[in-house]
Amino acid sequence: QVQLMESGGGLVQAGGSLTLSCAASGSDIPINAMGWYRQTPGKQRELVAGITRGGRTRYGDSVAGRFTVSGDNAKNMVYLQMNSVNPEDTAVYYCSAGTLATLLRWDYWGRGTQVTVSS
What pLDDT is stored for residue 48 in this prediction? Predict the structure, then answer.
């Protein structure tokens, strides 16, 4: 079983930046894509960004141009650089990992890290 551990969440002022990290561990199952989703109370979990092992990326419409996803294949890690954040970015951010490089199906999830943007 693959375990995902997020880190880097916290409180940030509007207009500021924050970097989230996620490490995958615990199994020899090959991970071919990792990503980030976010969720606020009463809303569905939504895609923030994803990246395949080959470097192909996908972004949610609300973060494109502000957030950047990157990965370290050797370490099985994914990062999310969040710039120009606004209060609407406040959410629990979940790391995801998939055995397929589709950026559409995810097999494993982290427990989430809270990001709060103050106005």
Answer: 98
